[in-house]
Amino acid sequence: MNKQPTFSNKEQRKIIIRLLIYIKPYKKEVSIALFLLFLTVIGDVLGPYIIKVFLDDHLAINHFELKSILFLAISYLIIQLLNVIFSYFQLVKFQEIALKIIQQLRIDVFKKIHQLGMRYFDDTPAGTIVSRATNDTEAIKELFISVLSSFVQAAFLIIGVYVAMFLLNPMLAIFALVLLPLIFLVIHFYRKHSSVVYMTMREKLSLLNAKLAETLSGMGIVQTFRQEQRFNDEFDEINNEHFISMMDNTKLNSILLRPVIDLIYFTAVVIILFYFGITSFKTAIEVGVIFVFITYISRFFEPINQVMERLALYQQAVVAASRVFKLLDETEIEPKQMDVTDDIQSGLIEFKNVTFSYDGKTDVLKNISFTVNPGETVALVGHTGSGKSSIINLLMRFYEFEQGEILIDGKSIKSYSKNVLRKKIGLVLQDPFLFYGTIKTNIALFNTDLTDKDIQAAAQFVQADEFIEQLPNKYEQKVTERGSTFSSGQKQLIAFARTIATNPKVLVLDEATASIDTETEVAIQQSLEKMRKGRTTIAIAHRLSTIQDADQILVLHLGEIVERGTHQELLAQKGLYHKMYLLQNGIVE
């Protein structure tokens, strides 16, 4: 097991200060909650004193004046009743503030996830990201609900108890003050050692989520290739590591939390009783004073015990917050887009000497140059790993490139806003993704500018209406997660309709017909011909039969364009394209 990093006090303070910034919008609510908390502390201090007065002024001397006793009894009951009311409202208020803060934090995390570049998702498992947005933010919630309120209450109560003890017996109050350094030493020792344990716990929980997400998303493959036992073993290994880290946490808490503080408390009680015992040989000791001191010591240690118990939540929250802030501070965001008014008019695309690497070491594209004139169709072909999809990724600005230029209508692609690029460039992927909802919402993608007629027209244009009209609810037919109830061809047709509905100027087809059967392909090729008219089209294709009518075909190999021309020109060259064509058609020379 790798050793997890620890947090210094300075780093923990930075994290807490950053979390406290989220309280700023709720200053009024926090002030109300703190005032109610202050009132409950006053009640906690006054209650024992009233009992002390009853013991010393009435019970000890057999002085039972009804009026005075009733006044004490009623006062005590009123204080306890008000304490219950104030405690209720301050707890509700703290909970409300905490929930609002976590709500905002989750919004920030979810928003940040959508701003992250594709490189981040290439390197980070989906389950780990989910863990940041759910488990880690949930742990932070406990910081605001339990920890901060307990810390503030403990501070108020300790101050109140100290003031009361100094008024009653300064010597014993000073003795109680001496206990604080010992308690702070225990707290410091616990924080130092628990940070390692909690970091390990959060990491192992994140790995559990990642493994679970991977298994669920690939369940078909897992069962097809009978990999259930292997995945069970891997999950069991991670789960066991998480169990070990949880046990380490349990052992640490069992030693350093309540047991140690209770030991200090019992020692303090024995010393106080010993002090009163020695003092009683010289002067009379009031029973009420003994009672109130023991009670105050108990009240003094009660919040400290609560703080110690909350330290576990505090450490979890600090570790969780560090992981959340690491995501929020992630610099691997989408390529910067300039907020300009330039629009794509004709769709002229130019790649000029573009070189690109995903990892900064190995170039997947090397000195790529080509031009796609408005209305033309350019096809990209080549073996797996030749760089076809990388060209699409750069054109869609999923990744940033440093060497070369990509121009649209003579202007750098970096000068267009993201909204313009996404609106004017229509992308259809090999594996279409459908969202939970209806066919209608999946075509429109909540674009309020599209009417029902526009949606139906788009579906008719790509001949998706033929199967949609046969469904029980037609365009309102429910779509489950990832569109699992539809065939691959049907999902692809819906994706085509989604793209056409936005009326893009540039079409990007990434093996768009790969998942469609032969009969459907014939029909959709007719639609594609209509789609390409008046639009610049870049199409990735493995089946060469689907791009024979392209104005230009670029043949890529190991990140370079090795051949270019029309279908007939490339066949005449008898190069790589010619070999691919013969192979696909089963022709042996």
Automatic annotation (TrEMBL):
Keywords: ATP-binding, Membrane, Nucleotide-binding, Transmembrane, Transmembrane helix, Transport. The keyword Oxidoreductase does not apply. It holds the Pfam family ABC_membrane. SUPFAM superfamilies: ABC transporter transmembrane region, P-loop containing nucleoside triphosphate hydrolases. Residues 32-316 form the ABC transmembrane type-1 domain. The keyword Transmembrane helix applies. Residues 349-583 form the ABC transporter domain. GO terms for molecular function: ABC-type oligopeptide transporter activity; ATP binding; ATP hydrolysis activity. CDD domains: ABC_6TM_TmrA_like (cd18544), ABCC_Glucan_exporter_like (cd03254). The chain crosses the membrane at residues 30-51, 71-91, 143-165, 171-190, 255-278, 284-301. One of its GO terms (cellular component) is plasma membrane. This is ATP-binding cassette domain-containing protein. It is found in: Cell membrane. It is a multi-pass membrane protein.
